[in-house]
Design a protein that fits this description.
Blueprint (H helix, E strand, L loop, with lengths): L6 E4 L1 E6 L4 E8 L6 E4 L1 E6 L6 E6 L10 E14 L5 E13 L2 E10 L8 E3 L8 E4 L18 H5 L6 E5 L6 H12 L3 E5 L4 E4 L6 E4 L2 E2 L5 E4 L6 H13 L3 E2 L3 H8 L1 H10 L7 E2 L7 H8 L4 E9 L2 E6 L2 H13 L4 E5 L7 E8 L2 E9 L14 E4 L4 H13 L4 E9 L2 E8 L5 H7 L3 H13 L14
Parallel strand pairs: 1-11, 3-10, 4-9, 12-13, 12-17, 17-18
Antiparallel strand pairs: 2-3, 4-10, 5-6, 6-7, 7-8, 8-9, 14-15, 15-16, 19-22, 20-21, 20-22, 23-24, 23-26, 24-25, 26-27
Helix pairs in contact: 3-4
Cofactor: Mn(2+); Mg(2+)
Protein name: Probable alpha-L-glutamate ligase
GO biological process, one term: translation
Length: 467
C-alpha cells in the first residue's frame, strides 16, 4: 500500500476563500511565518460578547484600490503578532476555509493592513498540513485562477453571505413588527440592534457628521430600517437624514417618510403622479367651509386630521350639517384637516397592499367591525387574504414609487370606477399581513437589503493573468 502523494505548494499560489466571498487571491506561502495574515482595513467588531464577529474591507488586487470587497466572519481570538520588522500588533483572528486546486481545508487567519505588501495574503506554517510540501523555488504548483474574476459577474456568484450590522429605529422594541425584524435578521446571521429614535442626537458639520446614542457615537451600520412613529415624525426624519448624510443605506428615505405622513402633501404627491384617490379638499379659512364641502362632493363626507394614524382623527359626517359641525370643531382646536369624498360602495372595506422593492408581496382585505366605516385592525377590524386586480397592483406599486419608499403599505378602496388610493404608510405593521397571508414579509425585506449589500464588480480589468 503506497502513501498518498504529497500536496505540492510553491512559494506563491492562487487561492480561494469561499467563506469570505473571495474567488481569487494571490497568496505568498511563507514557512518562516507562524501565523497566516489577510489584508484588511476598516476593521470593526460587532455582535454580542458571547458570539463576537468582525467585519472588514479588502482591496483584493494590489494596485487597484478602486476594487473593494466587504467581508465578515466570526472572531476566533485576539492575538499579539510580531511582524518580520519586529513590530507587535494585537490582531483579530478569524476562521475560514481556503481552497487551492481541489484541496479545501480550514485555517486561522489574522487581520492586518497589508496595503503596501505585494501579496494580499500570507499563508503561515500553522496553516500548512503535514502532507503538504512547499518548494521555495517553484511558483504556482496548483492551478492558476483568472484574476479577471474580480471584473465579472463571477464575484457576485461567489460572494459569501455577509453578516450585516443593521439598526431598527423603533421606540417599541417589544412590538410584533420590531421583534420580527430582529428575529428574522438574526436567523440570517446578521446583528440587529433596536435604537430608540428619540435617544439619538447629532453632530452636524461638513467634514465629520456623526450620530450619538446614550453618550457614545453610534457605529457604522450597513443598513437602517426606520419604524418611526407618527408622534415623532419630524425628529425621526432628522435622524434618518443624518444617517443618509454619513452614507448609511436607509430602507426608506426621510423625504418619502415626511411626505407620506403629511396627509395634505401626500395627496398632492399622488395627484402629481396621476394616481386616483377620493376627491379631496383643503382650506384654512372658516369662510370657505361650505365651498370646501362642495368641492369634496355631497355628504356623507370624511373629515380627516392631517396627522391622523391608525384610523384615529378620522370622522364620517353623514350630512352636510354634520360636516359643518365637525369642521367647526376641528378649527376650534386649531387642527389642520382635509375633507374627502366618502366612497360608499367600499362598504367599510379596504385593501392593504404591502410593497417591497417595487413589487406587491402581500395583499389583505380589511373589513370594519360593528358598523364602523374604518377598517383599521387596531380598531377591531378583521383581515382576510385577497387577490388583487392588475389595476390595484399597478396603483400600489406606483404609489410607493411616487414617495420613493422601498417598503410601504398602500391602502386602496374599491370604487365603482376603479381603485382609489387612501393612504401610503411608510412604516406598515407586519403582524396583520404576515398572519393573514402566512408570508414571511420580514424575510422578503431582508432579501432586498442583502441583495443591495452584495459587492459590485468593476467593469474592466487592466491586469495580466497569472503565468
Amino acid at each position: 500500500m503506497t502513501d498518498k502523494a504529497a500536496f505540492a505548494l510553491g512559494w506563491e499560489e492562487w487561492a480561494q476563500l469561499p467563506d469570505l466571498g473571495l474567488p481569487a487571491l494571490k497568496v505568498k506561502v511563507d514557512t518562516g511565518a507562524r501565523t497566516s495574515a489577510l489584508h484588511a482595513f476598516d476593521i470593526e467588531p460587532f455582535g454580542p460578547a458571547s458570539a463576537p464577529m468582525v467585519r472588514f474591507n479588502i482591496h483584493p488586487v494590489p494596485g487597484r484600490e478602486d476594487i473593494v470587497i466587504s467581508c465578515s466572519a466570526k472572531v476566533v481570538d485576539r492575538r499579539e503578532v510580531t511582524s518580520s520588522n519586529g513590530e507587535t500588533e494585537l490582531r483579530y483572528v478569524i476562521g475560514s476555509t481556503i481552497q487551492m486546486g481541489d484541496r479545501v481545508w480550514p485555517v486561522e487567519i489574522t487581520l492586518t493592513n497589508r496595503i503596501n505588501m505585494a501579496y494580499r495574503m500570507l499563508l503561515g506554517r500553522q496553516a500548512i498540513a503535514e502532507d503538504m510540501i512547499v518548494t521555495p523555488t517553484e511558483s504556482f504548483c496548483q492551478p492558476t485562477l483568472d484574476d479577471s474574476a474580480y471584473f465579472t459577474a463571477q464575484i457576485r456568484k461567489a460572494s459569501a453571505p455577509r453578516a450585516l450590522r443593521i439598526a431598527v429605529l423603533s421606540r417599541e422594541p417589544e412590538s410584533y413588527s420590531t421583534q420580527r425584524l430582529v428575529t428574522e435578521g438574526e436567523s440570517r446571521g446578521h446583528v440587529v440592534e433596536v435604537i430608540d429614535t428619540t435617544r439619538c442626537y447629532m453632530a452636524i458639520n461638513a467634514m465629520a457628521p456623526e450620530i450619538y446614542y446614550d453618550g457614545a457615537r453610534l457605529p457604522r451600520y450597513d443598513a437602517v430600517i426606520p419604524r418611526v412613529g407618527a408622534s415623532i415624525t419630524s425628529y425621526g426624519c432628522a435622524v434618518i437624514r443624518q444617517f443618509e448624510t454619513i452614507g448609511t443605506f436607509c430602507l426608506n428615505p426621510a423625504d418619502g417618510i415626511a411626505k407620506s405622513r403629511d396627509k395634505l402633501q401626500a395627496h398632492q404627491v399622488l395627484a402629481r403622479h396621476q394616481i386616483d384617490m377620493p376627491t379631496t379638499a383643503f382650506a384654512a379659512s372658516p369662510k370657505d367651509t361650505d365651498n370646501l364641502i362642495d368641492l369634496a362632493g355631497q355628504a356623507p363626507l370624511i373629515v380627516k386630521l392631517l396627522e391622523s394614524t391608525q384610523g384615529r382623527g378620522v370622522v364620517l359626517a353623514e350630512t352636510k350639517k354634520a360636516a359643518q359641525s365637525v369642521i367647526s370643531a376641528f378649527r376650534g382646536l386649531k387642527a389642520n384637516f382635509l375633507v374627502q369624498h366618502f366612497v360608499k360602495e367600499a362598504s367599510g372595506v379596504d385593501i392593504r397592499c404591502v410593497v417591497i422593492d417595487g413589487k406587491v408581496v402581500a395583499a389583505i382585505k380589511r373589513s370594519s367591525s360593528g358598523g364602523d366605516f374604518r377598517s383599521n385592525l387596531h380598531l377591531g377590524g378583521t383581515a382576510t387574504s385577497v387577490r388583487i386586480t392588475k389595476a390595484e397592483r399597478e396603483a400600489a406599486v406606483k404609489s410607493a414609487k411616487a414617495f420613493g419608499l422601498r417598503m410601504a403599505g398602500v391602502d386602496l378602496l374599491r370604487a365603482d370606477d376603479g381603485p382609489k388610493v387612501l393612504e401610503v404608510n411608510s412604516s406598515p405593521g407586519l403582524e396583520g399581513a404576515e398572519k393573514t397571508t402566512q408570508k414571511n414579509i420580514a424575510g422578503l425585506l431582508y432579501d432586498g437589503i442583502e441583495k443591495r449589500m452584495r459587492p459590485m464588480p468593476a467593469k474592466k480589468s487592466n491586469l495580466r493573468k497569472a503565468p
